[in-house]
Amino acid sequence: MYTQAMDTLREEGGDKPALRTAEEAQLQQRFDNRIDAGEFIEAKDWMPENYRKTLLRQISQHAHSEIVGMLPEGNWITRAPTLKRKAILLAKVQDEGGHGLYLYAAAETLGTSRDQMLDALHSGKAKYSSIFNYPTLTWADVGAIGWLVDGAAIMNQVPICRCSFAPYARAMVRICREESFHQRQGYDSLLVMMKEGTEAQRAMVQEAVNRWWWPCLMMFGPPDDQSPNSVQGMRWGIKRVSNDTLRQKFVDAAMQQAEVLGVTFPDPDLRWNEATGHWDYGAIDWSEFWRVVGGEGPCNRERLAARVRAWEEGEWVREAALAHARKFDLKEAA
Amino acid sequence: MISSIKIPAAPELSYLLRLADTCLISGQRLGEWCGHGPILEEDIALSNMALDLIGQSRALLTLAGQRSGESFDEDQLAFLRDEIDYRNPTLAELPRGDFAFTILRNLVLSTWLKLMWERLRDSSDAELAAIAGKALKEARYHQQHAADWAVRLGDGTDESHRRCEAALAQVWLYIPELFEDDAVDAAATAAGLGPAWSQLQEPWLAEIGEVLGEAKLAVPPAPTFRSSGKRGLHSEHMGYLLAEMQYLQRAYPGGAW
Fold first, then answer.
1. Residue B151 lies in a domain
2. Interface probe with B: pick from A64, A82, A95, A103, most Cβ of B within 10 Å
3. Which of A148, A188, B34, B212 has its CA at 20 to 30 Å from residue B159's CA atom?
4. How far is B238 from chain A (nearest CA, A)?
5. Of A64, A51, A74, which is closest to residue A2 (Cα–Cα)?
6. pLDDT per residue over A266-294, tens digit each?
7. Span B184-196, mean pLDDT?
8. What is the number of domains present in chain B?
9. Which domain holds residue B183?
10. pTM above 0.80, yes or no
11. Distance between CA atoms of A154 and A145, rounded to whole angstroms?
């Protein structure tokens, strides 16, 4: 995910200077200087309105992605093949919930409540990473998500630990640590099936890798020349590394890991390029990316419906908790 | 399809399996909430408790495997046993229901488990005693969590109160099974392995009564119905639960996971 937030927002521009007072101009200048000096911005510091809006969009989208991202893997908790794998998967999916919590808290420092952010998710106004609109059809998908999806997320997220907005950067430090466990458990699960498993299991792993490869490459967002908001993101220190650079880094790492695993990727154009020292890869079908972002992926409706259902079915619980808290407060006051 | 393993009919093994299966099946049901909780914090809390219960079941199943004389491992016991060899009381396997049902079931089972773990710390089986020492800390937290929510929901809104009453009425039908003794209990007590289940009834009623009182929920009348999961005769729900839980192990013979 996560750079996607900047790319899927086509309508908003950067921080175009509107009419400003002298005082605002001075604040803006001071802010720019701090960014240029590599300083971190705290929630109480002055910031341009577009910086705030861009961050709120990115952090809340990241939080929503963690929460919606619990669903595809959660789909396999009751069917995990061993108790150890069940425990690992439960711990992992629960970690994603924890990531959602830190991120909602970081976004709240920008002045929007968690309930407002959830409303935006449930009404379809806010986006989440489109990778989670793909289905988990076999157990190997759980491993493939850990290895490739979490692997891509780590590539994206490590640079965000240096994001200019300090609350986001701090949340990301912890999240990245946990994500690296997530990636390892996924890879380990696939490695066991490939090295010690049966022919049927190896076929299951290869089939899952075939389905997840291209959507994972799309997680880095459109090519740099089609990512107009990236420039502003870089200027503000929100985005540190370009989409294509991260994507290439991911491909290079994945190729080595695939060799150890004994799986292939479904791209006949993958080949080592001596001149660049990188792996070349084939053309990505961006029409699929925009289709899924636009709501026409395989599971968009199910994912959102599951979140909305959990929220609506939980309404009486939240109301009861508030009612009880009010009674308690009255008792305390009496 | 891998065929099922058969469990020797030893009462002490049954005693361990009854406890192990209670943890495993409760954990399986709680895990269904992951991603679907009423609020993010509770989603995480329920998943955490599922994780604790799965951990407890792993320790107990490993021990049961060692004590079975057949060297079964935890996964053979979890995934290759037929329904009739599963020994959890029926309450654990009932569908998760709404949040009120989950909370009230957690309340009665975590209180029961807490009391059980307290006593098992003195088991003649040193390994079981060690498992109990660790699990007790977890069960105390589970009980606290369920009790807090039972009070919030019981003494919250009209709707939450009504839902709790309905959930409690259903849960209560399955309570007698938690306190009825049979030959398994007699053998366990004689060997000093652990308490007869009936010994937990009095302290359990006292603790539950206190929480229900605070939650403004009346203790339902004693039912005449008797569930029998711990003797291997389960509800219709158990078959579906196991079909889902065991399918990969059954469908991929000889697999490595």
1. yes
2. A82
3. B34
4. 13
5. A64
6. 999 999 999 999 999 999 999 999 999 99
7. 98
8. 1
9. 11-251
10. yes
11. 12
